[in-house]
Specification:
heterodimer, A: 356 residues, alpha/beta, 6-stranded parallel beta sheet, two-stranded antiparallel ribbon, 40% helix, globular, B: 324 residues, 7-stranded mixed beta sheet, 12 helices
Chain lengths: 356, 324
């Protein structure tokens, strides 16, 4: 560890720091690795689908796989997840099926949410993975409310909410952190500081030296962690979730990472980032770093074969989902209210009869 | 039945529903020890404890956002915002999050929050304590918008809102909190959402009014009666979804309609009602649909009596319709 303030486990020599090693079994670590590889394969495929006009938009997480997968592994059954749009890996790690992710980005009848939102806005009630918002950090106060409900009922669960460095600038962040501190709620705020909110650098989001130190103002502990080190993320988020479940309140975690690709498929990062900067971070690729560690422990034999297998899994999922029919027109008017009121029934009937 | 004020009826509804269902929680600034700025939640803290009657930090985004999460995780939150004018910092949480949670998740998650807020003018509250924001919420897909005008309706509608599966903006006409009294059934009492009330029957003209404008409408109708004009007053009670059948049936019979509200005129709810009547009752109309409203200005403190519609302005609109 070069910086004692930043929690890190995977050393440059390919070994793990025993002081902070979360102590996962070999199969667990292989699972983390495979999910990271699958997440990247999915992201690459989704970007390709957007570039070829088969989907309208995508938000890739390339470079941040350690954050999503490491945090997702720290979530237990019964916990709740209020993710940001770049954190589909948390859901993937928790068992949100790849087929559902593919269906959602296509927005046809293979999408459980019936094509209601643009890509990256998934949810799954079965695993408490809550619907994603486009405005930044609006989900944070919702996490507070879910945690309050659980605490009122005496449930020993934790709530994980994820967001980027830009999210710390919002009023919703302040409200959620403050409420969590005041009510001593089991919420883990996982901030992935990937250096940019679209084009605006983190230095324009805050005048504080770190984002983690903001926790002190709300009476919460603040933790900094190496965001490209999946074991360090697992350790930091796991400890915070354990604290929350034990009734000891919330935590703010700042993970230092880097978005290697664009903010979204609508973004051109070459306008605001140098090739040198991107290359330097590419050297810290979280997947390669973890692969080197696993190879050293003889847990992983052939990274290239793992990557090829993940790409094939994604290809098949896309092939299956693309054959699903379009969502029916009448579905546009459903789920606005618990029952369809007269004005929506009239508008639906008018549209379906060709008079609308 | 006991005769009580509108604010007391709201307190009664909250206490009754909290007794019936342990998942009902009240939250907001001041709602605990102080019982809210208008005392709507008075006594609830003592009865139900600080877990279910929650004095929150002063932050509307937090109050609304937390309510959404509470509802998603099995509670029935009834959030109070001190004045409807103070909701705007939480506008995004209402119009993009609370109202859309069911739709965007295809029914997997819902946010059946009841958001209560004192609304409207007439209490010398000035700009920040007098606005009538109902049109913003009616314009937002997914929200139910309610405004009672009697104590019994206040209790029955609020109870239905708390039991319902949709998010509700429950606007309370603060001018009526302690100026109207009425008999309110004791115990559990429900008034269904989406059903209007005929305040006064009449054959010559339909006058549609809600909240604090209902007593104004009644005075204008009494004056019109002395001139030989029979005014039928309809209080929709639930502003959206509107009881269009009641309005349509009345206007087809009377052939004349005037809408009365205190919110500003342009894009106010009166414009929508006027358009609906025009679309559905055109061949029955003997005169254009009239509107009596607040003006398209910020709410004025010193001139509030002139800003708010009164029986005289309403009577002039009735006469104009009759003379058309």
């Amino acid at each position: 560890m070069s910086d004692p303030e930043i929690l890190s486990v995977l050393r440059p020599d390919g070994t793990a720091d025993p002081a902070h090693d979360p102590g996962l079994s070999d199969p667990e670590m292989l699972s983390l690795y495979r999910h990271m590889v699958l997440l990247r394969a999915f992201d690459e495929k989704a970007v390709a689908l957007q570039r070829s006009g088969r989907i309208g938009f995508f938000v890739p997480s390339t470079g941040q796989e350690a954050c999503s997968i490491g945090a997702g592994h720290a979530v237990c059954e019964g916990d709740w997840i209020f993710p940001a749009y770049r954190d589909h890996g948390v859901g993937l790690m928790r068992g949100y099926p790849l087929a559902a992710m593919v269906g959602q980005i296509l927005g046809n009848t293979s999408d459980a949410t019936r094509g209601r939102q643009m890509p990256n806005h998934w949810c799954d009630r079965a695993i408490h993975l809550v619907s994603v918002s486009s405005p930044v950090a609006t989900q944070l106060p919702h996490a507070v409310g879910a945690a309050y409900a659980a605490k009122l009922r005496g449930e020993r669960i934790a709530v994980l909410t994820t967001f980027g460095d830009g999210g710390t600038s919002t009023g919703d962040f302040h409200a959620a952190m403050n409420f969590t501190g005041v009510f001593r709620l089991p919420v883990v705020f996982f901030c992935e500081n990937n250096r940019y909110a679209i084009s605006v650098p983190v230095e324009h989001q805050t005048a504080t030296g770190t984002l983690a130190e903001k926790a002190r103002a709300y009476g919460l502990p603040g933790v900094r962690v190496d965001g490209n080190d999946v074991l360090a993320i697992r350790k930091a988020v796991g400890d915070a979730m354990d604290r929350a479940r034990a009734g000891e309140g919330g935590t703010l975690i700042e993970a230092l990472t880097y978005r290697m690709g664009p903010h979204s498929t609508s973004d051109d990062p070459t306008v605001y980032r140098s090739d040198e900067e991107v290359s330097a971070w590419r050297e810290k690729d979280p997947i390669r770093r973890f692969a080197a560690f696993l190879k050293g422990r003889a847990v992983l034999a052939d990274p290239a074969a793992e990557e090829a297998s993940a790409r094939e899994t994604v290809r098949k999922a896309v092939e299956t989902a693309e054959s699903a029919p379009a969502v029916p027109l009448s579905s546009m008017f459903e789920d606005v209210y618990s029952e369809i009121p007269w004005h929506l029934a009239e508008q639906r009937d008018s549209l379906l009869s060709g008079k609308g | 039945m006991a005769e009580v004020t509108l604010i007391k009826a709201i307190n009664d509804a909250l206490a009754t529903e909290m007794t019936r269902d342990p998942s009902v929680c009240v939250l907001g600034e001041d709602v605990g020890l102080d019982g809210g700025v208008f005392r709507a939640t008075e006594g609830l803290l003592k009865r139900f404890g600080p877990g279910r009657v929650v004095d929150t930090p002063l932050n509307e985004v937090g109050i609304v956002g937390m309510s959404i999460g509470m509802a998603m995780n099995g509670l029935r939150p009834v959030a109070e915002i001190e004045f409807s004018d103070f909701i705007y910092p939480a506008f995004d949480q209402i119009v993009s999050e609370m109202s859309k949670m069911r739709y965007r998740s295809a029914g997997q998650f819902t946010a059946a929050v009841v958001l209560r807020a004192p609304s409207g003018g007439g209490v010398r509250g000035g700009h920040y304590h007098s606005q009538s924001p109902e049109a913003y919420y009616i314009h937002t897909a997914g929200l139910v918008v309610v405004m009672p005008s009697t104590p019994a309706d206040a209790k029955g509608l609020l109870s239905s809102a708390i039991r319902g599966e949709d998010p509700v903006i429950f606007l309370e006409p603060k001018a009526l909190y302690r100026t109207v009294k009425g008999e309110v059934p004791q115990g559990e009492y429900l008034v269904p959402l989406g059903v209007g009330r005929i305040v006064r029957p009449g054959d010559d003209l339909t006058l549609i009014a809600w909240g604090a404008m209902v007593p104004v409408a009644e005075k204008a109708a009494a004056a019109a009666a002395s001139e030989g004009v029979g005014v039928e007053i309809i209080d929709p009670r639930t502003l959206w979804p509107l009881d269009i059948e009641m309005i349509e049936s009345s206007v087809r019979r009377t052939g004349r309609a005037v809408v009365l509200h205190e919110a500003p005129r342009t894009c106010g709810f009166g414009a929508e009602i006027s358009a609906l009547i025009q679309e559905r009752c055109f061949l029955h109309l003997k005169a254009p649909v009239g509107r009596v409203t607040g003006f398209d200005t910020p709410f004025p403190y010193a001139l509030e009596k002139s800003y708010l519609p009164d029986p005289e302005r309403t009577l002039r609109a009735i006469r104009a319709s009759m003379a058309f």
